[in-house]
């Protein structure tokens, strides 16, 4: 029995629970409890694009299932292959190779599309560290094979998502409530005394608003936060000259004038 080459992972298989019991015959070659890992042998389908025909072949798989998952939703498997066409596992034993945990599998070459082994066999070695990495990667690749979505969007909820309102789910209607009602406060003292973290007094506009609704909220004293420590309404003590324009005016003076 010659020693075969390293692990060859061809693709990832993710079975739905109902299909799982139909495709997995009882072949308890190997089982590890932490995490639960198994080796199984079942048929797969190979599509020939040139002839549009499908034929079955048998392949050895290593699979993993999370403990406490009676619905098999966490079940993943990857094909276990070695070079030379040895695809049927016959026996499994755990051991060490070069100081690392290793799985030794007696593999046989199959006869066409049947699970019957031929006289050709080999001893294949697989690093448990690499097997664990392959199974963990398979969890991320399911269920889109390449780990990418199909770019199709599907609405999760039929209602607008906004940070300015709350939606209360009732039977049967859905109640929409605003998180803040700043416009209800008509003067500065009323706006600041309510201590609403969403509201503040927009000084130049003379109204209670959200911060981003105030045109110059980034400038000092232009937007007074209702929930701030130093909240105090701005009062005008004197105005000189007595008549001022509300519009900003900029006068450009040419050089040399």
UniProtKB/TrEMBL annotation:
It is found in: Membrane. The keyword Glycoprotein applies. Residues 181-234 form the PSI domain. PANTHER family: PLEXIN, PLEXIN-B3. Residues 1-31 form the signal peptide. InterPro entries: Plexin, Plexin_repeat, PSI, Semap_dom_sf, WD40/YVTN_repeat-like_dom_sf. Keywords: Disulfide bond, Glycoprotein, Membrane, Signal. It comes from Ictalurus punctatus. Gene3D superfamilies: ligand-binding face of the semaphorins, domain 2 (3.30.1680.10), YVTN repeat-like/Quinoprotein amine dehydrogenase (2.130.10.10). GO terms for molecular function: semaphorin receptor activity. This is Plexin-B3 isoform X2. Its main location: membrane.
